[in-house]
Prior knowledge:
The chain is mostly helical. About 75% of the residues lie in helices and about 0% in strands. The radius of gyration is 19 Å and the shape is globular. About 50% of the residues are buried.
Amino acid sequence: xxxxxxxxxxxxxxxxxxxxxxxxxxxxxxxxxxxxxxxxxxxxxxxxxxxxxxxxxxxxxxxxxxxxxxxxxxxxxxxxxxxxxxxxxxxxxxxxxxxxxxxxxxxxxxxxxxxxxxxxxxxxxxxxxxxxxxxxxxxxxxxxxxxxxxxxxxxxxxxxxxxxxxxxxxxxxxxxxxxxxxxxxxxxxxxxxxxxxxxxxxxxxxxxxxxxxxxxxxxxxxxxxxxxxxxxxxxxxxxxxxxxxxxxxxxxxxxxxxxxxxxxxxxxxxxxxxxxxxxxxxxxxxxxxxxxxxx
Length: 295
């Protein structure tokens, strides 16, 4: 049997995990909407920014994470591209480096502020997974790095692209911060599937630190609390319909959280599939509220 020395394109695509690109692309789109700028007048840079947020920066973070997590994945998910051998040798690391370079190149072409955002995003991706920092070894720090990068940084960058590098409005920045905080709880949902490997490898995810039930309660509280503040802010801005819609979306999440809390390990993936979409829909509604009410 011939030993593969180069990764197959399908294995590279699996390593880059297209399904994970959506949150960053969505947050970037929320920033675009919240900017108040005419979207059609900036369609090309908006499109390139979405490519930067998802297929480049987020994909890069996935490759870097899989490379430095290959020993944990060999326990939890041995069929993933690197532990299975479908990404041979050090190609996982090489792909992470190549995608980092591509991300920074595209970010530089979109302007100085976007380049700075790209550098911060790349730094957080490497700090999350790679020694010596390896922020993911503590669920509080690691999830904060991910939520800030995937949600807040992408949102602010989306607004900056549309405003030709100018700072976003106070409303947009506030929403970016609040949804970054809420996304910390979303990141915790991903840790329930890897409790066994995390315990063996000393990764202190929140389910490892707090236990599955307590971690689920904390995750739900972290997801819900910022949305309550968003509702209050949107009401203060006078966007009554938008505040009502966000409230309905939060109620839907709350009902599903009750089911999730009864069996967090078994239902974390279920809640990610059905509850989290309501969270991200609320992001877009709030971005629209910021657009129509900002001075």
